[in-house]
Amino acid sequence: MILELSARDRSMLDGEQGSSAAAAMKILVAFSNAVGAGSLLDISGSHIDGCLYHGKAGLDFVERLVEGGGRVQVPTTLNVGSFDLIHPGMVKMPAAEEAPARRLMTAHMELGCQATFTCAPYQTRFRPAFGEQIAWGESNAIVFANSVIGARTNRYGDFIDLCCAMTGRAPAWGLHLSENRRGRILFELAVPDPEPSDSLFVGVGLIIGQASGDRIPVISGLPLPRDEDQLKALGAAAATTGAVALFHAVGITPEARTLDEAFDGHAPEETIRITRADINHALSRLSTVPDGAPLAAVSLGTPHFSHEEWMRLLPMLRAVAPGRGIPIYINTGRATLTRLQEEGALVGMEAFGLIPVADTCTYVTSILERLDGVVMTNSGKWAHYAPGNIGVSVAFAEMKDCIRSAAVGHVVRSAS
Amino acid sequence: MMQPVQTKSVERTGTFQLAGEAAGQALVFSQALSFWGGIDAETGDVIDHSHPGLGQNVAGSILVMPSGRGSSSSSSVLAEAIRRGTAPAGILMERPDPILAVGAIVAEFLYDIRMPLVVCDIAGIVSGNRIAITIEADGRAIVRVQTENVPLKSPECSP
After folding, report:
1. According to the lineage, what is the superkingdom (chain A) (predicted)?
2. In terms of CA atoms, which chain A residue is nearest residue B42?
3. Contact predicate A402/A375, CB 8 Å
4. How many A×B Cβ pairs under 8 Å?
5. Which CATH class is domain A7-178?
């Protein structure tokens, strides 16, 4: 397919709007040709997963765009970085690594990106609306935007998310187009009267991620979620065990009011039943230690803890009142943290071991005081990646069990 | 110097994802390799334990494989490998790959190093063949495959 460019696209490509826009458009055109897009389309926002320092090339790219006078053309949020800029000293990093890691974050801000530093941009004022065309990086944010909101993005990543932001354009292909958004594979939840527990949503997410491949999954029989955070957890898990960028939950998500709508009138290519045993099996694989193991820390908020999640956690902390000094790390967006501080919601909570972490996440950088013990989490994504990333042992459980365990000093879990 | 008498050189045309000239020895993978988790950018070694090319080194070769694969982080790994000089001299693939194209173009933009990325028929190429990639007047890629181990003219093509 020949890629058709608008006059403005051409003007960018020809350097009439500066060297940074020209470079971004050149990269975008090559990418669009490679995916077979026929044209580019306007986007209304972008989310950049470029602030984790992985090597010099990544930083050189952003610096060059800054030098060329580049600015993002649409409201653009930033994913987590390697550093908590709000709580300096929390991340333990050699100075030689700290300087480029910090610079990577500030250089993005010099391009006009918003200093959100959150993996949950959908919790900020930059949340897109249904049907909006966006170019997002970060797997959990992508699946949330497509599935829960009904905004439209492909899985953008390294460099290309920023090229979309710098040009305000994205290739007209994949999930940007209605015809590519219908379901292909059906997962029937065969659990009678399922309780909408957090772990149920994580378990379903793990399973659809593993079994969907590149087919869009549709879930039927899912109980109504308590809130969107349960769908956040489902999507994050599905994008962890697989490459899911969009799921439909019949009667729950906006493009799946009915089974027929989810499949756009087509029949599923395959149907898979999910039983209680399947869910228990998927969840059991997240825990590397048995009940009773001594606990070193709790980590919640992967993806970043929403204000609603804080409102569930704080009364729980007061009621259980863990007093052993076991740290309870909560990863959250800086905007959410500011709101909580303005509300006075965190006053006195450090006595229970509460340590809020902003701008980053406990599994991508060195924050945890102790890496030799067991860390408990309610996040399927954290449980999956943390052992490989930072070398800890993990116990997965509901949030309530994580707090109870912090109070008694070892892993306790209620029967699910 | 004596040259082997029987040299078979076959030309094929291709499409550039990133245009450039390169020459080197073919390193052929029948299975796509993800650069992220598959290549060590510091050395060019293949580190993916599930890949048949494990333990080989891609630096300076003409890497030949059906397609790209895997995470978008492969763009960063390829760009970093090109910066460090541990990347292939060029890549031939049967199908275009957006992730590798982005990595190669970013490296060209930043470091003025052009690692040609060509989409062409890869049938019949085996590891060890000498390959030269040149640019036709019309912008297409010419891929010359020599099945005898004859040194090519350009000095940087030795393994």
Report:
1. Bacteria
2. A55
3. no
4. 80
5. alpha beta
